[in-house]
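Appendix B. Worked example

We walk through a single record from start to finish. Start with the input: the chain for U-box domain-containing protein, Massariosphaeria phaeospora, length 290.
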Amino acid sequence: MAPSPDYAAEQLKSQGNTHFKDGDYDAAEALYSQAIQKNSKNPLLFTNRANARLKLEKWEEVIDDCIRSIELMKENMKAFFYLAQAQLSINHPNEALSSALMAYELCTNSAQQTSNAATISALVLKCKKAKWDIRERDRIRRRADLLADLEGKLEHECKRDVDDIEARIESGDVGRSEGQEEKSERKQDFENKRNDLRTAFALSDPQNLERREVPDFLVDGITFEIMHDPVVTKNGRSYERATLIEHLKRSATDPLTREPLTIAELRPNIALKEACTEFMEVNNGWVYDW
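Next comes the structure step. The output line below is what the pipeline stores for this chain.
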């Protein structure tokens, strides 16, 4: 008697998981695809394949898998988490931020108390900073046509080199792992050159060309806004007082570490409050748009 489609799909999924753990993402993707052919109604199979495709940097395919998984199961934290990463990788920070915030909401409101909150929180902040960086880049470019031209050339050269590496991977001239490492190095080189270029221009016109950014330690891990009245927990993590108290009224746990936490255990973080106040005062002209 032939095994049922559901059973066959689970067997293929299990094999895919083994290859994924071994770092063989191509084989994992292929097995997850076979599992989906057996059972296309299982949303977890799509998230598994999306995760493998993330490792392979197949961003559009990741997005397709995540959307399909969410259609099958709306409260799908992993699908939103993977979706945000793919959207961010194709330079869609607005969409990525929305997806990351949804993943964070599902994670922090989960009755299962998952351990992914800190990782998802970091992704939310990364998406928000990417969204802000685009606005900053456009603002600076409007101030300096020459800077815009030079940045554009750097971006064009980086994209050309990355496309060339991808073509070599597809043709088999270089292994995927080696190629991915080479692409990462090329992107890092581009970012270093771009930052050096911006610094040089900022030094020449500091009032208008200095890059504006908010340090991570000033940002609340619940609302992702700059803190005004931070309090510190027993494990040393700081949050905005009002938002943390509201959270603790619903669940007596640290929102990121999931450790037990009560309102009575909170202490004012005076040094951080002073740093937040000073930052807000010095950057009053733009910081409210962040």
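Two observations about the output. Residues 145-204 form one domain. The beta strands are 230-232, 238-240, 267-268.
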